[in-house]
Design a protein that fits this description.
It is built from 24 helices and two strands. It has 550 residues and is an all-alpha fold. The chain has three domains: 30-85 and 301-377, no CATH class; 124-295, no CATH class; 378-550, no CATH class. The chain has a two-stranded antiparallel ribbon. A hairpin with a 6-residue loop joins strand 1 (72-73) and strand 2. Helix 6 packs across helix 11, helix 7 packs antiparallel against helix 8 (170-189) and helix 7 packs parallel to helix 9. It is found in: Membrane. Keywords: Membrane, Transmembrane, Transmembrane helix.
Length: 550
């Protein structure tokens, strides 16, 4: 096993990409004295970074009683567990139920496949679209109960808008307006109540299923509604792909249109409510979903088992962290009184790691479910959160399926690279408001947009094609990477961890105390060394014909 095999494979990282590189990968540096020093240094620093939150989580620490009420009984080594993150707690507590739901779906699909008898030589799985439709209806009733009466009209209206306008530009425009308005109304009315329509309907509010908050997961559903509308609009304006096409790439499956008849209501509902991906994604385009039924992929049992092992390893890693580092509870209770800037920094850093791990575990579970059912959804998390030095690369590897969606349905239609700054601002404003209609997330989106600017400027002033072979270029890039990483951490700490008030306190400790300045200098040195290891890891990928662009 190679070191680079630790990073999950994606179809786009093919050897063909590497041939288009303007610069040949440099000779391996892993065994040089410089990189051995970097490796030993970072190994020691990582141990310290792990030890700090473990020490802060000790029952003998002065702040322990502040966050102790937020801890729960654990199962590892007699320790308590920090199960206080609401999103991950929902997933973790309901994991056995989710496994049973996935198992039931896969067994039912297996039976349906066995019963299927095709009279044609061509092999396709289009018959499964009707099965997925039925499974989606059953799932929706179980999850949301009477709220199906709210969801069905929204889905139907969006479908009718798309079909009514067809090849007209008013189709995607009206669909976008409709879906954005619905997002705001869902949030404003908290999913609506039947009693607000008429008191005689109040009894319906008592049967809202096992997951009443349907409007929370609707944010994901909304992306699929827009995908269908725009894919259908483009299909009406372009010839469909030949029935004889074979070996389609991931990108081709996303962009090549189908015959207009394929964009039916049954296929639409089958896609929008596809059970394995309904709750959390990853996000697929309508075209990709249908292509994988028209031209099924060869997903081997070994590939599924290998991915299942990755998922289980990540789950156990998360469990270990939650049992030994109570940083989420510390963050929620602001239990950092008397802590040093380094300790506060590690509370923030490990909270970001937990955000990364919890989302990765969510997405990988549902992607594994889809993979076992024969559907290869885009991989969302390509790299470890700590293995990123570029804001652009980070976004490509974090929630990758969402990034694909944003590029296809917002960035390119808005002009793409013809106006990078404005389009980047537009994209991240949408991303922030789509996540949550709060100023904190909006501020996060604007900060990310702002921080992309210096990186774009640096790439323009010091292009790799011109200076890549200079001995100083790698070190200059590492200095830039330090600033990039610090800015990305600042934006994400504001948006997802400390908030505005917590970040103000941390910044005050960091820049206006001698200890804080020492920590900042030390952290910058560590990031400089880490950046070189990240560069070399990517060079190693290039040497093996892999180009991930992140």
């Amino acid at each position: 096993m190679r070191l680079i095999d630790l990073t999950v494979h994606i179809p786009a990282s093919s050897s063909g990409r590497s041939r288009a590189l303007t610069q040949e990968p440099a000779p391996a540096r892993w065994k040089t004295i410089e990189f051995r020093i970097y490796a030993v240094f970072i190994f020691i620093i990582v141990l310290i970074m792990g030890w700090i939150p473990i020490t802060l989580s000790s029952s003998t620490h002065p702040n322990y009683m502040t966050f102790r009420p937020r801890l729960s009984r654990g199962w590892m080594f007699g320790r308590a567990v920090d199960n206080s993150d609401a999103q991950y707690r929902t997933f973790r507590n309901n994991f056995p139920t989710l496994v049973m739901a996935a198992g039931s779906f896969l067994i039912a699909k297996f039976i349906r496949t066995r019963l299927h008898r095709t009279g044609t030589a061509a092999r396709d799985n289009m018959y499964l679209l009707r099965f997925n439709f039925g499974a989606a209806v059953v799932m929706l009733l179980a999850l949301h109960g009477t709220s199906v009466l709210k969801i069905a009209p929204i889905l139907t209206i969006n479908y009718l808008i798309s079909k009514r306008f067809g090849a007209s530009k008013f189709g995607p425009i009206c669909s976008w307006i409709f879906n954005v308005v619905i997002l705001f109304l869902n949030d404003w009315h908290s999913g609506y109540k039947f009693e607000n329509v008429a008191s005689s309907f109040a009894f319906l509010d008592e049967y809202e299923g096992i997951y009443p908050r349907w409007h929370i997961s609707f944010n994901i559903t909304m992306l699929r509604l827009v995908s269908f509308s725009m894919d259908y609009y483009w299909a009406c304006n372009a010839p469909s792909a030949s029935e004889n096409v074979v070996g389609l790439s991931e990108k081709q499956r996303q962009t090549l249109a189908h015959p207009e008849a394929i964009y039916s209501y049954l296929n639409y509902i089958s896609y929008v409510l596809y059970p394995p991906l309904y709750l959390a994604g990853p996000i697929m385009t309508f075209n990709d979903y249908i292509w994988q039924h028209r031209k099924p992929l060869d997903i081997t049992r070994r590939a599924v088992l290998s991915y299942a092992f990755r998922f289980l390893f990540a789950m156990l890693t998360m469990e270990f962290i939650l049992h030994f580092m109570y940083v989420v509870a510390m963050k929620d209770t602001k239990a950092w009184a008397g802590d040093t800037p380094a300790e506060i920094g590690m509370i923030g850093f490990w909270n970001l790691i937990i955000v990364w791990l919890k989302l990765m575990n969510l997405w990988r579970f549902f992607r594994l479910w889809a993979l076992a059912a024969g559907i290869d959804a885009p991989e969302n998390m390509i790299r470890c959160m700590a293995n990123n030095y570029s804001a652009l690369g980070f976004w490509r590897s974090w929630h990758r399926s969402y990034n694909i969606w944003l590029i296809r349905y917002i960035y390119i239609p808005a002009g793409g690279q013809n106006n990078v700054v404005v389009n980047t601002f537009l994209v991240f404003t949408f991303v922030a408001l789509w996540h949550d209609l709060t100023f904190t997330l909006l501020l996060w989106g604007w900060l990310v947009s702002l921080f992309v600017g210096p990186e774009l400027a640096a790439r323009f002033v010091l292009p790799e094609s011109k200076y890549g072979n200079k001995p100083w270029y790698r070190h200059a890039c590492a200095v830039g990477a330090v600033f990039n990483i610090l800015m990305m951490m600042a934006a994400n700490l504001v948006g997802f961890v400390l908030g505005q008030d917590g970040m103000k306190f941390f910044v005050a400790q960091l820049f206006f105390t001698a200890e804080g300045l020492r920590f900042l200098v030390g952290a910058s040195v560590c990031l400089f060394a880490a950046a070189h290891l990240m560069f070399e890891y990517r060079e190693d990928e290039k040497r093996n014909g892999i180009m991930r662009r992140c």
